[in-house]
């Protein structure tokens, strides 16, 4: 079919769980028979995608920029970026398949043939073993071939040990009871119960407002933890730190000064990304590179952090940032300002391949994250990729059209259906005529 005659005819969504988190897959159909695959960021809502359906029906899917500008206003930070981002990924997949080129070619070509992968690594916080089990978990990553590491390390480790934290009396007990997700190392996706009533209030209390402080004894524990981990894995491999917990910037500085000597590769999301000045304050006091961005939608918000010299590493997630091309724009802007990029990725093979193509097209990629090293059947929902996808700590950049995925394995999708929303490829006709005046000026 001639390119100018291509049209979007339908969109369907399928809610999954356990890959490794709750995600929503998107299929966008065209009158040429080409189908594009996309994905919403973990713990998002399918409705952020379905509400876009009436805006894209009948559009030519090859006009990615035009469609993106039309729907961009319906995305926002964190999970609210999922709809726009997922649709954009599906359009890129369609364009690649139609023109018979890989998505990285649509972003100007590639800088590398393989993407370095690092695994987010958490161990049960209750272990209280001062980093021994984390050291073992990270050694296992190294023996599996990974060449960069990241560990979760923060106040979740200290919650059940006396004298490690102080806080307005009663607050820590309330957090343990209602919002362990806030303080503990997060496994899987947020549950509905984490997002309502008392739990909501606690979960959404930002770092500067909790009043939680780490005592010197707590700092001693965390410092010894890092030292123990380093003595297990050595000093030759980069080791990043994530999920520090909801404490103020001043405590982040105290911690950073303690552990600089163990050479953390970066300190991730120490405070909410919105607080540019607090990032600057931490950055001016420590030599540990600061990293944030997995919850940022669009280049404009990254510009604030980059222009104000607040971060050393931008950390966008393709499925929040606005899709593949917007993440490429973020990476290019960061590059012009001497800021590195690591890609956040906690999603299914569809989201992973979207990140692989972006990573290939960025000049300064450090590495891409992977959350599914311990999820054996993670890759079974797709065909057409090398098995296993990660070999020797790298993912090869495919030359196949689009994302490089041949097909989705429907039986495996059904097996991973989200029990709360089990409809297979939900019929979205109810959204066909959703309409409002989208013009943002008069
Ligand atoms: Mg993170």
Q: Could you explain how this protein is built, in words?
A:
With 442 residues, the chain is an alpha/beta fold. The protein has 2 domains: 122 residues, Enolase-like, N-terminal domain (Enolase-like, domain 1); 283 residues, TIM Barrel (Alpha-Beta Barrel). 35% of the residues lie in helices and 16% in strands. It contains 17 helices and 17 strands. The strands form 4 sheets. It has an 8-stranded parallel beta barrel with strand order 4-5-8-9-10-11-12-13, surrounded by 4 helices. Strands 1-2-3 form a 3-stranded antiparallel β-sheet. Strands 6-7 form a two-stranded antiparallel ribbon. Strand 4, helix 6 and strand 5 form a beta-alpha-beta unit. Helix 3 packs antiparallel against helix 4. It is globular. The mean pLDDT is 94. Bound molecules: magnesium ion.
Which features would summarize this protein structure in a list?
three-stranded antiparallel beta sheet; TIM Barrel; 2 domains; 442 residues; eight-stranded parallel barrel; 16% strand; single chain; binds magnesium ion; 17 strands; alpha/beta; Enolase-like, domain 1
């Amino acid at each position: 079919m001639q390119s100018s005659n291509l049209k979007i005819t339908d969109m369907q969504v399928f809610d999954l769980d356990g890959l490794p988190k709750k995600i929503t897959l998107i299929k966008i159909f065209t009158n040429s028979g080409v189908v594009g695959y996309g994905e919403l960021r973990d713990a998002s809502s399918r409705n952020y995608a379905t509400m876009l359906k009436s805006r894209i029906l009948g559009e030519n899917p090859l006009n990615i920029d035009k469609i993106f500008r039309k729907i961009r206003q319906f995305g926002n930070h964190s999970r609210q970026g999922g709809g726009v981002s997922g649709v954009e990924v599906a359009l890129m997949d369609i364009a690649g398949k139609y023109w018979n080129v890989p998505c990285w070619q649509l972003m100007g070509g590639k800088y590398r043939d393989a993407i370095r992968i690092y695994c987010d690594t958490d161990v049960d916080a209750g272990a209280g073993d001062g980093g021994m089990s984390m050291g073992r978990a990270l050694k296992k990553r190294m023996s599996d071939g990974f060449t960069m590491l990241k560990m979760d390390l923060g106040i979740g480790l200290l919650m059940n040990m006396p004298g490690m934290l102080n806080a307005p009396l009663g607050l820590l007990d309330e957090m343990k009871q209602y919002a362990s997700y806030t303080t503990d190392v997060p496994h899987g996706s947020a549950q509905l119960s984490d997002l309502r009533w008392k739990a909501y209030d606690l979960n959404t209390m930002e770092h500067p407002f909790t009043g939680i402080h780490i005592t010197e004894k707590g700092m001693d524990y965390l410092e010894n933890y890092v030292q123990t981990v380093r003595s297990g894995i050595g000093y030759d491999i980069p080791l990043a730190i994530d999920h520090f917990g909801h404490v103020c910037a001043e405590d982040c500085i105290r911690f950073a000064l303690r552990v600089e000597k163990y050479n953390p590769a970066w300190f991730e999301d120490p405070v909410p990304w919105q607080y540019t000045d607090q990032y600057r304050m931490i950055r001016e006091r420590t030599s540990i590179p600061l990293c944030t961005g997995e919850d940022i939608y669009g280049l404009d918000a990254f510009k604030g952090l980059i222009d104000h010299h607040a971060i050393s590493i931008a950390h966008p997630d393709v499925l929040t940032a606005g899709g593949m091309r917007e993440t490429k724009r973020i990476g290019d802007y960061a590059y012009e300002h001497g800021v590195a990029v690591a890609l956040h990725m906690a999603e299914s093979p569809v989201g992973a391949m979207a990140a692989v193509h972006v990573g290939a097209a960025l000049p300064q990629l450090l590495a891409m994250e992977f959350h599914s090293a311990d999820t054996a059947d993670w890759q079974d929902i797709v065909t057409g990729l090398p098995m296993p996808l990660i070999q020797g700590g790298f993912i090869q950049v495919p030359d196949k059209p689009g994302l490089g995925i041949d097909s989705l394995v429907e039986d495996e999708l059904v097996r991973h259906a989200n029990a709360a929303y089990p409809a297979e490829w939900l019929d979205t006709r109810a959204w066909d005529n959703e309409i409002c005046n989208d013009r943002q000026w008069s």
